[in-house]
Amino acid sequence: MATTVMPELLQPDASESTGHPLDGIFRPRSVAVVGVTPTRGTVPYDIFYNILSSGYTGTLYPVAPGKRSICAVRAYRYVVDIEDPVDMAVIVFPADVVERALEQCGRQGIKSVIVISAGFREVGPKGAQREQRLKDICAEYGISLVGPNCLGVINTDPAVRLNASFARKMPAAGRIAFLSQSGALCTAVLDYARAKQIGFSKFVSFGNKAGVTEIELFDYLHRDEQTDVILLYLEELRDGRGLIEAAQRVTRGDNAKPILAIKSGRTPQGADAAASHTGSLAGEDPVCDAVFREAGIIRIGSIEEMFNAAIMYAYQPMPEGNRLAIVTNAGGPGVMATDAAVSAGLSIPRFAESTTASLRASLPAAANLKNPVDVIGDARADRYTAALEAVLADPNVDQALVILTPQSMTDIDAIARGICRIHEQAAKPIACSFMGAADVHSGVRLLQAAHIPHYILPEWAGDAMASVQQIRLWRRQPIGQPTLLPVDHQAARAIIDSSSPGYLSEDQALVVLEAYGLPIPTYRLCPSADEAVAFAEQIGYPVVLRAISPQIVHKSEVKGVTLNLTDADAVRGAFDRMHHHLASVAPEAEIHGMLVRGMIPDGYEVILGAKRDPSFGPTLMFGLGGIYVGLFKDVTFGLAPIAQATAARMVRQVKAYQLLEGARGGARADIESIEQCLVRVGQLITDFDRIVELDINPLIAGELEIGNAVADVRIRLGD
User: Fold this and answer.
1) CA-to-CA distance for 682 and 696, rounded, in angstroms?
2) Domain of 707?
3) Do 52 and 172 belong together in one domain?
4) Is there a single domain that holds both residue 52 and residue 117?
5) How far apart are CA 125 and CA 115, in angstroms?
6) Burial of 475 by CB count in 10 Å (0-12 exposed, 13-18 middle, 19+ buried)?
7) Is 18 in a helix, a strand, or coil?
8) 150-162: per-residue pLDDT in tens?
9) CA 124 from chain center: how many Å?
10) By C-alpha distance, which of 616, 686, 608 is closest to 267?
11) Which of 43, 189, 312, 502 is the residue whose CA sits 20 to 30 A from 170?
12) In angstroms, rounded to a whole number, what is the distance separating the alpha carbons of residues 435 and 690?
C-alpha cells in the first residue's frame, strides 16, 4: 500500500498534470466562483469562502454582479470580464440563470465547470429540459461538467488544497476517495469521518450526473497517486455496463484499487416481468449484487460498514490469507469475536508450538494460550504487547485483532501506545476493538491517529477483515476474454428476423438453441396423431407430447404437456385428449400441433436465463430450476458474453452447486457442460438485440455419461 507523501505547497502547473480531462476539476490553477453573494451562511458565499480559507494554492476569482469585492477580493461582473485564463468555474447562480453563466464560461474557454445549483432534472420535466440545455452547451464547448444539484468537489492534496464545496470544514488528507450522488449524505459523511479521524484524498458529490459520472471518476482515481481505495454511494444506474467495465479496470492489474459501494433504491418490475422466471428474478437489485461482485466491487449495506472496511484496507497491509489471531482481556468478547469471524469466512488457526511457548513465558498461568488468547482481566500493557508480538510472529497467523474491555486496573492509553509501537514494525494487519465509550476514548484516539483501524464492536472488525478477503480473493480470480464458440448464426437469424415481437413458438425456439449448440433432444412438430405415433415409433418410447401454440406460453398451466407415454395407444389418446382440453380452456389458441420428443433421463433441474437489462444490457442468470426457481430463488447473474472462467464461478456461486457435485452420495452432474451452455446462451443474447428474455427451465443436468438436455425453453423477442 502506498505511503502518504507530503510535498511542499506548490501551485500545480501543467507539467504536474496527469493529462487527464478531469485535471481541470481536481487540479485547477485558477477558479472562478460564478454567482457569489456577500451574505454569510448562504451556499454562494460559503463555497467562495471555503476555497479562499482552505489554503487553495491557485488563483481565485469571485464573479458577483453589482459587487466590487467579496471577502476583500476584487469581484467581476461577468466571467467573461476576467482578464486571465480560468481553468474551472463553480456556478452557484439560481437554476434559471445557470444556462447563461455556463454559456459565458464556454465563450471564455473554461473547460471545467461545477454546477452547485439545484432545480434541474430532480424537480420534474421543466427542470429536465433545463438540464438538457446544459448538456448541449457542454457538448458545444467541450466542457467537463460536475453536477448540477451537488455539494461540490474537494481535493486535499497539499499541492492543491481545493475545497470547492459548501461542506462545513475541509477534511483531513487521507488515502480514501469518496464519491456520492447525494449531496446531503456527503455532509453527514464528512462529519462522521472527522469524528473518526478518517482522511480523504478526493471527495466528490456529482449530483445529477449531467456530465461527469462515476465512470469517468473511476478512471481518474485509478491513476491518482493519493488514492488507495474508492468509496461510492449511488442512487441510480444509467450505464451499468459502462460502470462495470470501468470498475474491472480499476480493481485489476498492478495499480488495482478496491471499490466499496452502497447502491440504494429499488427498480420496480415491469408488468410483463412475470412472464418468465428470468424477468421476475432479474430486477436491478439482485443483478447489481452479482455483477458488482464479478467486477470486484464490494457492495456494502451501510456507511458504517463501508468505512469499517475502507480503513482496514487503506491503512493496513494486505493479509496473505484469512487466518486471524485474537488477543483479549475478557473471555466473552473473545468468544463472540471468534463466532463472528468464522461466520464472516475467517479462520481461527491453531498456534505453532513456538508461539504457545512464548505466550506461556509471558502470561500468567490462568491465561488462555490458545486462539483467542485471553491475557486475563488485570492485564496491563506488558501482557498485551507480549501476546500481540507472539501471535504476529506465528507463521499460521495472517492478521490480528486486539480486544480490550476497560477494567479498574487496565492502563488503556499505555496499551494503545504499545499497540502503536508494534504496528509501526508489523508486516501483518492489526485491528482493535476497545469496547466502551467514555473510558476508552483517549486510547481510541491514539489508535486512530496511528491509522490503526478501531471498531466499537469486535464483530465489526471481523466483517471488515472479511471484506478485505473478498478483495484479496477477487484479485486472484482468472478473468479471461469472453469465450466464443462455433455456432450456426445464420440458422438462428433466419428464425429471429422472420418472427414478430412476442414469444417464439417452442419449435422455433428449439431451432435457435440448436443453432447455438445447446443440447436439444430429438423432436418433431406433429400436426396429427398419426404423425405423432409414427415419430414416437421411430425414436422409441417413452415419449413426451407438448402443445405448440403462439397463444400458450405456460403449457403446464393448461395441461399442455403429457409425459412418459409408453406406446402408440398412449400417444394417440394423449394427442386427442390434449386437443379437446385446450379447445375448452383456451378456445382462442391456435394449436399448430404437438411437439413429440423422447423422455429425458432423470437429472438435476437447473435454469439458464438471459435478459436485456435496461442498465446492464445482456444479462445471464443461472440457478436451481424447475418448480424450485421461484420458491428458493437460488440464482446468480452475470453480464454476457462471458468467459469460461466466469461461467464456472456463476455455477459455483449458487447453493445448489453442492447437489450438482453429488451431495450425500448422489451422482455428479456434467458441470462442465452446464458451464458451456451458459457461455452459449450468453453468446446468443449478445448476438441478437431482439432477444429480450430467454428461459431454459429446466435444463436437465445428467451425470457425465448421460449429459444435459433442454426440457423447456421460452424466448421473447422485442421490436
Assistant:
1) 12
2) 604-717
3) yes
4) yes
5) 19
6) middle
7) coil
8) 999 999 999 999 9
9) 29
10) 616
11) 312
12) 58
